[in-house]
Amino acid sequence: MGRVLNVTRADAVAAVRNPLAFIAARWTPAPRTVRRAALFALVMSVVIVVTGGAVRLTGSGLGCPTWPKCTDDSLTTTSAMGFHGAIEFGNRMLTYVLCAAVGWAIIAARSEKPYRRSLTRLGWAQFWLVMSNAVLGGIVVLVGLNPYTVAAHFLAASALIAVAAVMWQRAKEGDGEPSPLVGRPVQQLVWFLVLASTLLIAVGTVVTGAGPHAGDSSEVARMPLDWETVAKLHAVLAWIVVTLTFALWFILKAVDAPKSPLDRTRDLFLVLLSQGVIGYVQYFTDLPEMLVALHMLGSCLVWIAVLRVPLALRERAGTATAGLPHPAPEATEATAGSTRA
User: What are the phi and psi torsion angles at 326 (to 5°)?
Assistant: First the structure.
């Protein structure tokens, strides 16, 4: 029989008062564990977007007609609510999986040694975004899938993906001052690319709000716009993003940039081309649900690929080595000093 841990009353009080500090004092995760926790949170932030799209595309947006309960009398879906109720309630349950993933990322970041305040704050930022978007999702249901609230719901999910992607990258780095790998003109071009991509996603929500997939089989108000005209504007913005990405790759080659920015720019270009193919095919085939779902997944992947480009334009001292479970004492002391600074 294994040894039973002797938990004192003081330990129990400490665990209740500050559970994160209690865990951190007794557990030190390997850098790989922290990176995997951050990646799991990022993956779940994409999954919740895709499953939310499935709710809309199957007409299950009001499968649970109220919130936070599924009906006025039941917290969960009932057999009388059928397929649509199961789809909507299932998506709500995945929010708890997302919360667990974000919570695991926060615990892992808080327990890493030395303590990295910036990484932990990124985890908490995800937590509050999840909570805020859960409330916003409830408002979407309560107002009968108003397209403006649906658009805000998706944009908030995109913000969550952005923070999760940054945390994933930061988990692979140290806390030293970032050193730029390219000149200021290239950095400015990249941030213009990020701005254009943000507009692309925002206009995409308008296409959704004006388009035929309202999210419910009943009559749901749409944005008073010609969705085909907005879709063409969306396509123009997409070509602008593709052109900027193509130009950036050539400029990086011309200035003999390091491998990381080149690789991230190439990845973005390939994801954009795949997303463009899906977009045009769905447009000319009258928006079949499966292609629209793939396009939503592609939107998340494009956004992640865009964000990885500016993150690749600098490096930080103290990058964790995958093969080492813990940093060397000298590296730990140096990183701790930079954190206090």
Answer: -140, 150
φ and ψ of 60, to 5 deg: -100, 15
| Alpha-carbon torsion, ordered 321, 325, 329, 333, to 10 deg | 70
- What is the residue-averaged pLDDT of the chain? 87
Distance, in Å, from the CA atom of 20 to the CA atom of 111, rounded to the nearest integer, reads 8
**CB contact at 8 A, 338 and 117:** no
Distance separating alpha carbons of residues 38 and 264, to the nearest angstrom: 19
Report whether 234 contacts 298 (CB < 8 A).
no
Residue type, 21: A
pLDDT digits (tens, 9 = 90+) for 136-159: 999 999 999 999 999 999 999 999
Please answer whether residues 242 and 272 qualify as being in contact, where contact means their C-beta atoms are separated by less than 8 angstroms.
yes
Beta bridge partners of 314: 180
Structure tokens given for 37: 């926790």
* Prediction pTM value: 0.87
Segment 300-340, tens digit of pLDDT: 999 999 999 999 999 887 644 433 344 443 333 333 333 33
- Structural Rg of the chain based on CA atoms: 23
208, 293 Cβ separation under 8 angstroms: no
Question: How far apart are the C-alpha atoms of 205 and 211, rounded to whole Å?
Answer: 10
**Contact between 318 and 170 (Cβ < 8 Å):** no
